[in-house]
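User:
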Amino acid sequence: MSDRPIVAFSDGASKGNPGPGGWGGVIVTADGLVTELGGRAAHTTNNRMELTAAIEALSEVRDLPGRVALYTDSTYVIKGISEWIWGWRRRGWKTAEGNDVLNRDLWEQLAGLVDARGKGGIEWHYVRGHVGTPGNERVDEIADTLARHGEVELYRGPLLAYGREILDLPEDTSVPKRSSTTARGKAAPAYSYLSLVDGEPMRHSTWADCERRVKGRSGARFKKAKDVADETAILREWRVDRRP
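Assistant: Predicted structure:
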C-alpha cells in the first residue's frame, strides 16, 4: 500500500447553526492504519465544524510523508481553500464586498497546514453527502452524534479489522457546478426558494416570501433551488431529514 495516498474523510455538524456542534474524521494511512477522530463545541456553526474537521485530519498526518487525499461534502471548505483564499489574502482578509472574512482564524490554520504540505501535497475531493459513501457516512455519524452530546467509540487499528469499506471511494469528486443563467444569458428561473429557521424548513414560490421569513432571524439559512434534485441536495447540505 506504500504507493497509495493517505486517505482522509472529514465532516462537521451543528444543531441550530449556531448551536452545539461536532466534527469527525477518519484517516487511512498508506500502511493500513485507520484512525477515527472526533470532537465537539458548545456553541458554534456548521462551517466552523467543517473547517475544524479538515484541520484536525490534516494535523493528525502532519508528520507523515506522501500525498493526502481529503474527502469532504463541504463546498465551503474546498472552494475556500482552493479559490477564495487568494482574494481574501490580497484584500487583507476582506470579502469582495469589503466585509471581514468569517472564520479567519480557522482559514489561517488550514492554509498553514496546506502550505506546509507543499504544492500538490493535498488533493481535495468533494463527496456528495448521504449517498452511501462509507467514509462520509462514518464521519457524518461521528459529527452528528457528538453535536447531539452523544458518545462515540473511536476506532484506531488495522484496516483489515475496521469493518467498514472505507476505501470504497466515489469516482466523481468534482464540485458541482450550478449555472445561474440560461443559454441566452438570462437568469434561470427558480424552481423554489428554501429557508431554514430554527431548524424548520419551508419552501417559497418567490424570493420576497423567502426573504420575509429569514430577515432578522439569527442563524437563518436560505437558498434558491433550480429543480427537485437541487432541493434535495440543499436539504441534505442543511442536514434536514424531511421535505418542507
